[in-house]
Queue: 3 jobs
Job 1
Amino acid sequence: MDKAILQEYMDACELVKETEREIQKLNRKKKTVVQTNVTGSMHEFPYVRQHFKVQGTTFTVKEDSHLRHKEKILEQQKAKAEQVKQQVEEWMLTVPSRMQRIIRYRYLEGLSWQQVAAKMGRRATADSVRMELNNFLKTD
């Protein structure tokens, strides 16, 4: 495991959130129903005036097909991002606790090296924490 996969993990987490929002938008659009009242009468005598409620979506069958295809692609994108997340989370279980904390603070929470050092305590400095992680990733 290296720094690149940790960066990819962060992107995958955000991608899952963004994709879920996009899917929700698509679902709201698909569920939008327009309703109106129309008036008509029989074709033959006696011409009896009748009122009807007509409802439906605001998009065509082709647009509906496009929405369904886009939703399928978004679901695949989300699944792939979740797979990356799971891979990194499983790897994190094999990492010593100190490294888990450093990785979580730096890559998952996005803290600066100085902030990571402050959270780690024990007179840690930004450089010492950074080097500790670099050495760990080289041997892993």
Job 2
Amino acid sequence: MSSINRNYRATFIFDNRGKEETVDQILDGVKKVIAEVKGEVTAVESIGKKDFARVTDKKLTGANYVHVNFSGPAESPAQLREKLRLNGSVYRTFIQSA
């Protein structure tokens, strides 16, 4: 494994319909998962609620978007996606190299 950290920008779409969790609580959970995959959060930007351009679920026409910049090993994006795959509060995850 390489010990060189790379920079990433992740965009998360949070779905907190019918849940008592706030967006900040969901974000704290995501930050913990990033730390579990040996990542370090460098910046967080909350975009707020936006409507989807293409609606796939008529009951969910928009959600909260958050950008998270983090650094970590090359394996961290795949590990992060896998750990968040079953999290019902994280609707979508997009990760790109920064």
Job 3
Amino acid sequence: MVCTTVKQGKECPFMTAKGCSFNGGICHEVVEQCKGCNRGAQYASSWYCTACPDPSVKWKNGNCNLASHIVNTAAPAKKEKLNPLKASKRGIR
């Protein structure tokens, strides 16, 4: 249904005929870590996340999985020590 509380005119999965069914009945503003994300939008003079109604929960255990401004880099693979005896046996095959 269309939101009638904070994000007026936008589709919201939490909106029902009785009003907003989200915890507290209203979406929460973005947190400091969300600054610079492409998913933020300004509604009623405050910034809100378009993907998540409570952004602080997404940042609770580390980085938000929806954050577009965070670049995850893979950790360099550890070079394992190679046993010379096993390596020579592999070369024979």
